[in-house]
UniProtKB/TrEMBL annotation:
Name the record gives this protein: Hikeshi-like N-terminal domain-containing protein
GO biological process, one term: protein import into nucleus
Organism: Rubus argutus (Southern blackberry)
Signal peptide: none
Domain of life: Eukaryota
Length: 168
């Protein structure tokens, strides 16, 4: 059905590495994979395996969950986009971390589920690229920063009291 790779961390893993919750939901317990260092895993590649037929109106959605927090959507793959490298911006652990003596410790998880494509946030990579290009237009050219810094240094040399205004 699907496979995943954690760049610089794992060999390809297939669906058997995940615990199947029901027909359409799988969970990877990060404690068994990396222990408590789950937040060091920053990205994941997910891909549909050859021969798997996902309906055109469905997607494999990827979610992450820090201990005690809610699941957070990271992205998805579809028949039209059969693989993706997804950032894993782990949320801060939630406030439900108090455990009783007989409770199992909470762990970070990666969830994968089959969902209706229409219910997911936009997977429009073209729109993301347009936003990135717009952001690049807002970047200040380096020579402007260099000129400002030179003026700053010159003023600091002329007036030693000037820098005292920046002391914390």
């Amino acid at each position: 059905m699907f496979g995943v790779v954690f760049p610089n961390r794992s060999f390809p893993m297939d669906i058997t590495s995940f615990s199947q919750i029901d027909t359409f939901h799988w969970i990877l317990d990060m404690n068994t994979f990396v222990g408590e260092a789950y937040d060091q895993v920053r990205e994941m590649c997910i891909f549909l395996l050859n021969g798997f037929q996902l309906p055109a109106d469905k997607a494999l959605a990827v979610y992450i969950q820090s201990p005690g927090s809610a699941f957070f959507f990271c992205g998805a793959v579809t028949v039209a986009r059969p693989s993706a490298v997804l950032a894993l911006p782990w949320p801060e652990p939630g406030g439900q971390l108090q455990l009783t003596a007989d409770a199992a410790p909470l762990s970070a998880k990666i969830g994968v589920s089959v969902e209706d494509l229409a219910t997911l946030p936009s997977l429009d990579v073209t729109a993301e690229k347009r936003i990135e290009r717009l952001a690049m237009k807002l970047v200040v050219p380096m020579d402007i920063l260099d000129r400002w810094f030179k003026k700053f240094q010159e003023r600091a040399k002329r007036d030693p009291e000037y820098l005292k205004g920046f002391a914390l």
